[in-house]
Amino acid sequence: MTAFLIAWRQLRSQWAAGEVRVLVFALVLAVAATTSVGFFTDRIESALVRQGGMLLGGDILVAADHAIPDRYIDEARQRGLQSTHAAEFPSMVLHGDDSQLAEIKAVGEGFPLRGELTVLQRRVEPALMLTGGQAATGIPAPGTVWIEPRLASKLGVNVGDSLEVGERNMQVSAILQREPSRGGDMFSIAPRVMLNAADLASTGLIQFGSRVKYQLLLAGEAAEIDDFAAWLKPKLERGEQLQKVTDARPEMRNALEKAQQFLGLSAMVSVILAMVAMFLASQPYVQKSLDSYALMRCFGASRRFIFRILMSQTLLIAAFGSGFGVLLGFAAQAGLAVLADRLLLETLPAPGIMPAVSGLAAGFAAMLAVVWPHLARLRDVPALRILRRDLGEQYQAHWLHFVPALLVLAGLILWQAGDAKLGAIVLLALAGLLLAVALLAWLGVRLLARLPQNATGSWLLGLAALKRRPGLVVAQVLGFSLGLTALILLAIVRGDLLSSWQQTLPEDAPNRFIINIQPEQIRPIKQFFDRSGLHHVEIFPMVRGRLLEINGKPLNVEDYQDDRARRLAEREFNLSWTVDMQQDNQLLEGHWWQPSEHGKPMLSLEQGIANDLRLKLGDRLTYDVAGTRLELEITSLRKVEWDTMRANFFAVTPPGVLDDYPASYITSFHLPGGQEQLLNQLVREFPNLTVIDVAALLDQVREIMNKMSHALEYVFAFSLLTGLAVLYAALVATREERVKEATLLRVLGASRRQVLQALWTEFAVIGILAALVATLAAAIMAYYLSSQVFNIPYQFNLRGALGVMVLAALLVPAAAWLGMRRFLNQSPRAILQSI
Amino acid sequence: MQTPLAVEAVNLDKYIENGAGRLDILQSLSLQVAAGEKVAIIGSSGSGKSTLLSLLAGLDSPSGGKVLVNGTEISHLDEDGRAAIRGKSMGFVFQSFQLLPSLTALENVMLPLQLAGRKDAKEKSSAALERVGLGHRLSHYPRQMSGGEQQRVAIARAFAPQPAILFADEPTGNLDEHTGERIIELLFGLNAESGTTLILVTHDMQLASRCQRRLRLHDGQLHEEAFA
Q1: pTM of the predicted model, to two decimals?
Q2: Choosing among B106, B115, B201, which should be mutated to test the A contact, i.e. which has the most A CBs within 10 A?
Q3: Looking at chain A, which terminus has fewer C-beta neighbours within 10 angstroms, N or C?
């Protein structure tokens, strides 16, 4: 009890005197970073997934080629999840004598669980069906159907007319404008007919062998959804599939993954920085404690007793710092919730108790790890230190003493990364950085040793100061460069990430597709666009073909295990031709054709499909195009950015190969908001065209990316704070020693100016060294992370790097001057008395 | 009846090894201090006075010979064993006061009492500070006090646990003459009240003359000095 009391009293006073404040501050930040970033990631992720759920119609979807087993539905119900169901299949629908292939979707009550349908419930002329809809309430009433505009115009049906669906005659009660949950390949699917699931059986369309896609849609709390998914996964049987929003939309998956990785990276960086800050801040704390403990030893305290005081104090600091850190973490994420109300529209899931518990654990572990290397030194401090100050100063901690700290750091990094690869990269980079700093500092000190002994000048005084304490210089350069590296790295990666997102979906990204353009319509349509002020609209030819043979061997779907590969092998391909490769494509292997290769049976294939179907350069593919066989050789592989929303093709040939086959044309273009009437004119002029509107989808994706950017900014600001804490701790760690030295110089007759010059020189060198290491390290890490982890383009910014170096060379000494100013302004006598 | 010995040094050696060879500080030094006796150890700077004091107080261990405190040999004890003896029977006053800057005057005085597990630490400490004339400054920190006041706090701290032996290392070395005199008065006054054994290290002859015995340390040996 006495030990605890003394520990408490000493801590209270040390707090008042300031030694322990930086340490506690760093600990608070470390804990706040781990808890709040954990929270952010968790809550933002689930909110984003939920928002993304609009694109799926639910948070998750179970798809099957047979009726969804009842046990899945029962389980979901028992777990309190919201659920509904749907069935999708192609079928002909009739109106009078006209018929058309349609994609039927029978939906249950409550569909969709996320997002909404937009419908038009009155008769309008066909061209106007594309605009002016309202959110639907509920689903089609029994006996009625909702149909897409293109089916309405093809069959000449309008609201109120009837449509034959299988054995039923059903009334069209609305035009279905937008169905956000409509994924898949937009160009090959037939127009949608949506009906009430209660009517499905009476249509007689579901027979044995019908190709029906059954869906179970589920929504609920993120954790419950995850639990259910985990329960379901091992139980899935052949033909059953669990889909998340990230499976449905590749651009969403990309963005979400990158956002998660960045959040993980920020959290890791915060933890590393906070621990470095704690290490630096522990130095003055340990130094002060040495004197106290020596005195206590003199007054008869045993080593055990000292150890008890030390442990009490460590645990007190840990409890206080962690507790406050957890509170701050809660406050920070409450701030996020406010922000999220505006940004994310949906209520975030409530924070759980786990982040608080793990935050506390992390705080205690970090504090114990930081004090551990000093434990023996503090416990064994000789009482004689009272008479001989040098005793206990020369203590060299054994490297093994740092193992717990390294383990805790590695553990926290891996925990925050949530991804072994990312964690390992950061750990390796950290080790590399430590080595580089040590090497650089060693070289620098060797260089300084060559300074002439008898040189004068206050700047030389500053350089000599560096020479006198190489250990301290290394520690300080390390602290500064770690802080700077983290800040530069995050700034670069964040900037690259945001701009790559913006580039993916620029403001003028195509938001409308027109398919079914006939060859003779190309010229008048181009003229129409020119007249309307929509220039540079590209129109691509499209010929449909089915893959029959690979290298003369008939294609067998059963050869492929992967579902995606099976689907690809089964479906019809859209083949296209072009002279030049599309700008957003990238040639990976082989060569692009020359003008002289006009008409040669060459094929450029998209890399993803080539991988899935296990195709390589030189393979010969035989297609069935309009009933004739066409053999093509793969002469190049391309990378295609599918998330740009431009029209793109898996398979492309040189001009002259597909000329004799029936082709239709396709275009994608950006229609500025408010100009929707143009489409009405277009459809009126060319009634056979089919316009596909992806504006809503695009807006949603863009909105989600925007919100992710805000989340990144928020977390980035947090990391920035920890970075500054490190810089501050690095300054404070050595302040006392420098003040002593400066005072001595003043006593010996140095002017304030000379002392200041020496100080500026010393810190400018440290600042430049740190900035050099940090810029290099950050550039290398940013390059690696961008290219290997985030898959975004990276460009080294020389001017930015130079700017950072100059800034560091000025800021570091300026901060040092600010920290020491009040001592420099006092009389040497006053300082001598206080130290 | 013979007076029991408070401190005894027998054939004490202390040397340090450095690059140039061995430097002898104390050589076969012997000393006997009776309980209640006041002994001054004098000598020039660097003669080894503080080293001798640190050995007698068990702050350091000798290269050879032994030290006995109240009849118990302490030189073969480990640091913890010596710390226990110090806590039980010794008090200290240092040249540089050695107050903990982070503790108030009262807390500084309480520290040794608390370390000894005394329940009455607060009452004893308040009384001791009252006795040195600082009863009104209990909650002041060392930085808020003058050098003389700080040394008075240190004296209160030394006497509060009522130690059998008090070691004082140049107690006036950091003080001006006038303040120094008042500190000496206080120190000897308190010593007379408590009958504590006093071992005082100083080069101040006036201060040394207030002790019953004066021992000059020269060439690693002690020489008894006669009073003028």
Answers
A1: 0.67
A2: B115
A3: N
